[in-house]
Amino acid sequence: MLTVDTWQKSSFSGGGQGDACAEVADRRTHISIRDSKAPARATLSFPARAFVSFIEALKARPSAD
């Protein structure tokens, strides 16, 4: 579970130093996403309910393997 304003790296981070991934933070009313390689740059923010729907849709997609 995310805590407010704590960034969490994706469990699917790339190889090497694991810095080729997205980070997510719970901001109570919305979810923020940033690039782990450039944390000081811009973030994307979504209403929490919209983000949950987005993740559910991704999980329902067939794998590209």
Describe the model.
The structure is a single chain. By secondary structure, this protein is of the alpha+beta class. It contains one helix and four strands. The chain has one helix spanning 48-60, and strands at residues 7-9, 22-26, 30-35, 44-47. It has a four-stranded antiparallel β-sheet with strand order 1-2-3-4. A hairpin with an 8-residue loop joins strand 3 (30-35) and strand 4. The radius of gyration is 13 Å and the shape is flat. The protein starts with 6 loop residues before the first strand and ends in a 5-residue tail after the last helix. The mean pLDDT is 81.
Main sheet makeup: 4 strands, antiparallel
Question: What are the low-pLDDT stretches, counting only 5+ consecutive residues below 50?
Answer: none
Backbone CA Rg: 13 Å
DSSP E strands, number: 4
Structural class: alpha+beta
β-sheet strand percentage:
25-35%
Shape: flat
Helix content: 10-25%
Characteristics of this structure?
single chain; 4-stranded antiparallel β-sheet; 4 strands; 28% strand
Q: Topology of this structure?
A:
Elements: E1 7-9, E2 22-26, E3 30-35, E4 44-47, H1 48-60
Antiparallel strand pairs: 1-2, 2-3, 3-4
